[in-house]
Amino acid sequence: MAKGVFIVAEQRDGAFRKISYELASTARKLADELGDEAGAILLGSGVEGIAGELGKYGVDKVFVVDDAAMEPYTTDAYAAAVAKIVKENDPAILLFGATAQGKDLSARVAGKLATGLATDCTELKIADGKMVAVRPMYAGKCFGEVVTSTFPQMASIRPNVFPAVENAKAGAVTKVDAGLDPAQLKTKVVEVQKDTSGKIDLTEANIIVSGGRGMGGPEGYAILEELANILGATVGASRAAVDSGWRPQTDQVGQTGKVVSPNLYVACGISGAIQHLAGMSSSKYIVAVNKDPEAPIFSKADYGLVDDLYKIVPELAKECKKLLG
Amino acid sequence: MPEKQSVMRSIPEGGHVNIVACVKQVPDTEAQIKVKPDGSGIDESGIKWVMNPYDEFGVEEALKYKEKFGGDVTIVCFGPGRAMESIRTALAMGADKGIHIDDPAYEGADAYATASVLAAAIKGIPYDIIFCGQRAIDDDSGQVAAILAELLDLPQLTVVTKAESDGKTVKVVRPVEGASFVIEAALPAVVTAQKGLNEPRYASLPGIMKAKKKPVDVKKVADLGVTLESKAKVVKMVPPPARPPGKIISGDEPAAKAAELAKLLREEAKVI
Would you call B111 and A107 a contact, using CB atoms and an 8 Å cutoff? Predict the structure, then answer.
């Protein structure tokens, strides 16, 4: 019988990404509720040395595939290795991060294992010995509770939502040979172009400072960049701003952009179209700065300022700089 | 004519290219979504239905592919009767024909079941490249294309902002957090479109007229010889949690208001 809660940890260049600790802590919590073990799968090249770190966040055992074919990530190599480890160990629950890599991989693994997957979950709970996954649908306009009838029950968790809690366990490392058949590998990574700006992706940012149509043009974003620098935030944009060509598409927050859950979302000159609100309303705190007191964004805001953003934002930057030293 | 169903074939010089684009019909992004009181689903009354925006990028890319290599574009759609509108939209944009799996089994079909239906439909036609949207903006699950690729034993290139092909391979740019991967795969392959891949064309009036006469093969799931097995079930839907009412920071001086906000963020919300 399927037993245990497994995660697929995510590392880049030999270092764990934060989502891995969030996954490990979540698996620990579910495993404790079920009275089972928490296991982790770690794939990469030269990664055996970091495997034990997952123990700090509550993982009992780690299965490591340390193989040159695992670097860089390809769907084929990773999906084959994960499927093999899952078949050999038969976990009841298998969790991924809802990151770019996790989304690509989890869906392929779901296909390979012919099991159900709940994507981008914001809550996981146990009822009658089974996992119930809560996930936003329609970009958060409503939520669905998903139960998978097949095993493993798979889910991917949204970054920044589940806490990473230190809870030291054995973290015993077992090396696994993925037994890859080169014929399985159908895709080839030709190049990895690193973004050297050091900008944190919107989906992983703790603070987002976002600008909309009210910015009036691309130049205005300089004041948002300045505020973002002081706060350690990432700059986002509304669809209107992206479609006007003021900001790159990767900055777009909303139903046809990124759905984000930062601790703080500062919306500047964003009126709050439904599709935008859907993409950011699960933020813990929302600030709205807009000249129009009737703007729908105020209905979602914890703190609202009805004023010209060009007057408020520079002052806010000054104040934050004072507070944060 | 190309040989059918051969997975390993490459496109011959001047040969016929078979391009597939999968589409889904979804509520417009401006739609208010109301959950039915019993939590069994959403209230569909008053909803304006459109082609999934990411699928539009997929259809556009399929049409560009056709412009480069010739051949034809087949639209494949699993959905209720109303979804025919989205198929016609794609035909009006320039696609050549459609397959509409119009079956009540659509209700409650999860990603696996949906991918099984699409895979069965696509197995029945020749294909060199398959375009899908990176996710549908209704259930936001983003799985169907990957499961489809698995069921057809094809490589998947997901969430791409650039795709180039020489007719035998496809090379894509796939942005991930903090980097972009340039990935190559031999055709046939499944490519999923992210915003930024292209600018979908509008259907022209003559295009709309022509679309009415283009062939759409309407099928039932049973016609495809596939048994639907949903693995994941949405047992209940709920509206999003209500946010507590917010505070408007008033005053005349922007500097004073900004100071008040910074203080609240620091001391009350504790987020900076």
Answer: yes
